TrEMBL record:
Keywords: Repeat, Signal. Residues 1-21 form the signal peptide. It comes from the Bacteria. This is S-layer homology domain-containing protein. Pfam families: Peptidase_S41, SLH. InterPro entries: SLH_dom, Tail-specific_protease.
Amino acid sequence: MKKLMIIILIVLLCAFPVVHASEITEREENLDFLYETLKGSHPNIFYSTSEKEFIERKAEIKKNINEKSNVEYVLDLQSLVAMVNDSHTNVNIGRALKDVHIYPFSIRHIETWVLDVIGTEYEEYLGWEVVSLNGYDMKTVKNKMAPIISHDNNVWLQRQLRQFINVKEILDYAGIIKDDELEITVKKENQEKTISLHTVDTSADTVDVVYLAEKRSQEPKTTKDKSKIYFSMPLDGNVYYIQYNACQEDKNLPMETFSLNVQNDLESNDYQTVVIDLRNNTGGSDGMIMPLLYVLTEYQKNNDVEIVGLIGENTFSSATINAMMIKEMGGILVGTYSGGSVDHYGAVDQFELPHLNIQAGHSTKYIEIDSLFDSGIPYGIEPIKPDIIKEQTYDDYMKGIDTAVHYIENNTGKLQANDDKSLYISRGKLAHLLYTMSLENNQSLEYAKETPSDVLFFTYYEEASRWAIKNNIIIGKSSTIFAPSDLLTREELAVVLDRFMSYINMEPSERQQLSYNDEKDISIWAKDSVQKIVNIGYLELENEKFNPKSHITIEKVENILENIK
């Protein structure tokens, strides 16, 4: 048993008994200021919600503005901001809080929603599945809470739901409760029980509760260490583990020093797998990880090692970008869907609502990972799907086993990335495929001295890009730009294949002379190569058309390269 300190982690509440005329004016001014600031400073608040819908919601808030308590008014403001559908844009009203009403319970998602914290009188129900709150199943509860939670995907919504779920005023605003009593229905196997909770007196220092974590057989070594931003350790002779909890630097252990320590550890043993755990990392500066990636890249060049990134619902913002960097290294992602979206609004700026002493945060730019990294091509504003989905199981949790890490330890050297070959091929991917073929043929390879400025050192196609440029196989878009994530058109592919065959001194005979009725659409610089590649039979016509500006899948390109071999 422990004493639960009443620490207010979420936004809430100070209710004013009377709303005077001057306060109504201030509320209206704050509402207008909030909307106009977001409209003028956010890159695009209308990307998923129309301006008409914003104006209607704003009018609805203003219409009833004199009838609302301070709590309801502030939550109204947050509901307007949440319409942006941007996880980085929200109202932070913590400084305005005075009186808080909290139910003494918490939930955690382990396969399903389970009771994670509860008052000692209900200790026997700890770990039971949470079926409903006041008769509303958890899906309905999530839907009712969604309008006041800033999110751009359902994973982050689920994560944030846990932060808000025990606050009376928010549950009341969402229409889940009507008075102080909260009924929670839980079940275990064939048993079902409804327990009744009332809010606790927050003026008291503590309240008696029990934690599910206290019932575990043990804690896994990979449990988040809240005292450290990052640390590393060997899990066994084959797996080296790095926990990276925030994209920021530890003043007592600079990232450069930490990375050198990792390098020394790696060089002292022959590890098969290096794991970077991002499951508890909600962001910061995405570039902070660069010294570590440099060490891992160099180690990878000289050793047969797999790089694995662990991700989950807390992987957010810059940590999401770091996860895509691991993919860009040729690494494998294991865990559950990330809380942060791949393409997303970010780079937060703050402003203050003048009459409330409350700050709001808003994104200042749109970050498109698919324009930076080849691995971002399949994604938009959506979570990262790991190559291998491994959710923490309840049984493992209670035994103190980290399900995802346990899986990695038992499958070292056998993990495979989920390479979606139905995707269109990019310049970086094609360079890598052709470069790999050249390596397999034991050719003496030459490279450009300088890496293109848009190709980062850790990418799986870094050497391939320098090789492709040096040998005039894939030419950069300029002297410094390679554009690795740009998709190749069919006419561009024809030119690259023609150049590659010349590079390997391959002169296949043409099967037949074919014509196509869209020849006028083919760029002048590509016509000879297109004719050659079509006549050889590598690129087929589609309804008597070549379709020069369309794209081609990775799978089809790999089939072509099999013929070239």
